[in-house]
Amino acid sequence: MQDIDTVLGDDIQFRGRLQFKRNLKINGAFRGKIQTGGQLIVGSGAKVEADVEASHITVEGELRGNLQASKSLEIKRNAQVSGDIRTPDLHVESGSRFTGSCIMD
């Protein structure tokens, strides 16, 4: 994991479209669309409803939406992911939940 440049705190609720180039961690609630060439981390208490395009995605909390990770996607213990995944490298830890389909190319 790379250094985190920006953190959306657990008291933040945000809607819209996020575009960024570096690394972002969401600890609060977000609904919308996320696009980045960097890394997105969904923190353990976060609730995200979004379609996501990123190079690296790490989910520790709850994420609903379609995910496209150009390099890797990691679903941590206790995470909940609901949506379709497309990534060449997928890591799913025991104790997580994933509902959807996955394409690894």
Structure report:
This protein is mainly β. The protein has one domain. Helix content is 0%, strand content 61%. It is built from no helices and 13 strands. It has strands at 6-8, 13-20, 24-26, 29-36, 39-42, 47-59, 62-64, 67-75, 80-82, 85-86, 90-92, 97-99, 102-103. Strands 1, 2, 3, 4, 5, 6, 7, 8, 9, 10, 11, 12 and 13 form a 13-stranded parallel sheet that branches. The protein is globular, with a radius of gyration of 12 Å. 29% of the residues are buried.
Short description:
The chain has 105 residues and is mainly beta.
Topology overview:
Layout: E1 6-8, E2 13-20, E3 24-26, E4 29-36, E5 39-42, E6 47-59, E7 62-64, E8 67-75, E9 80-82, E10 85-86, E11 90-92, E12 97-99, E13 102-103
Parallel strand pairs: 1-3, 2-4, 3-5, 4-6, 5-6, 6-7, 6-8, 7-9, 8-10, 8-11, 9-12, 10-13
